[in-house]
Amino acid sequence: MADTPALDRIRVGSAPDSWGVWFPDDPQQVPWERFLDEVAEAGYSWIELGPYGYLPTDPARLTDEVNKRNLKVSAGTVFTGLHRGPSVWEPTWEHVSQVAALTQAMGAGHLVVIPSFWRDDKTAEILEPPELTAEQWAYLTKGMERLGHEVKETYGLDIVVHPHADTHIDTEDHVERFLDSTDSELVNLCLDTGHYAYCGGDSVKLIETYGERIGYLHLKQVDPEILADVVANEVPFGPAVQRGVMCEPPSGVPELGPVLTAAQGLGVELFAIVEQDMYPCEPDKPLPIAVRTRKFLRSCGA
Q: The pTM is what?
């Protein structure tokens, strides 16, 4: 592997998502202690908090738990529906404040912001139209700018908005429209390679075109055969995950080597957090995948 260039600006980690964790509390999920033990055993040094309430929310206790496993926290995650207008600001800020306070206390610098789903990921019920009106786009972009400003002022964190399947920021057109409509001083992107491929986007092209807006990476791949069936039959995201649409690297798309090389070329330090959606999964499934994935990423230079 001597000829693999070192990706010395990329800081690799993993997240509860790669252990099948989608909810703060769910009997189908592994206990948080096991997640922390196994993510450290797999060779990762950085983690995200996952759904608020899955890991301990007392900063002193969580600090103790991550320190004794030689782990550090890169980000927290929040869900928002800011396209609905000013009326949702107060409940949104209440949720964001909880997560941001813990994220700040853990020494992390980022808050990953996921737009709300237009289709329920468990029941497949259509909750809203998949396309926003011009007014809703304005609410969304201005709301995210306000969120970015407030989170920075209050907690010293940078928000990175996560394009996500079955949300209003998903396809290449939607992502570009969002970036073109927001201020880079306030809002940047968490590029999730799997979600972007799921929605037809090209991660390397996005990095090369909007490089200054890429503030954070989630690494995952999709199985092209399963994805083709998911798209053809309009399968919602939750059931698609249960079919295995998000697969273990390097068996899917996009190729992660070129994505990481393009990211390294931006000349800034970036987190690259592995997230292989596997909810729900057998408790013994995640660790071997995590070990192999960490080994694969080392072979790419990360």
A: 0.97
Taking alpha carbons only, the member of 243, 203, 241 closest to residue 219 is 203
- Tens of pLDDT along the chain (302 residues) come to 446 678 999 999 999 999 999 999 999 999 999 999 999 999 999 999 999 999 999 999 999 999 999 999 999 999 999 999 999 999 999 999 999 999 999 999 999 999 999 998 778 899 999 999 999 999 999 999 999 999 999 999 999 999 999 999 999 999 999 999 999 999 999 999 999 999 999 999 999 999 999 999 999 999 999 999 999 999 999 999 999 999 999 999 999 999 999 999 999 999 999 999 999 999 999 999 999 999 999 999 99
Contact 74, 50 (CB under 8 A): no
Let me know if residue 162 belongs to a domain: yes
Here the CATH number for the domain that contains residue 61 is: 3.20.20.150
Domain contains 3: no
C-alpha of 215 from chain center = 12
What residue numbers bound the domain in which 51 lies?
10-299
- C-alpha–C-alpha distance, residues 96 and 76, integer Å: 10
How many independent structural domains does the chain possess? Answer: 1
The neighbouring-strand residues paired with 47 are 14, 73
Bridge partners (DSSP) listed for residue 273: 13, 218
DSSP characters over 56-69: ---HHHHHHHHHTT
Left (φ > 0), alpha (ψ -120 to 50) or beta: where does 25 sit?
A: beta
| 232 class by beta-carbon count within 10 Å (0-12 exposed, 13-18 middle, 19+ buried) | exposed
For the chain, give the longest Cα–Cα distance.
Answer: 56
Is 205 inside a domain boundary?
A: yes
Task: Answer yes or no: is 114 within a domain.
Answer: yes
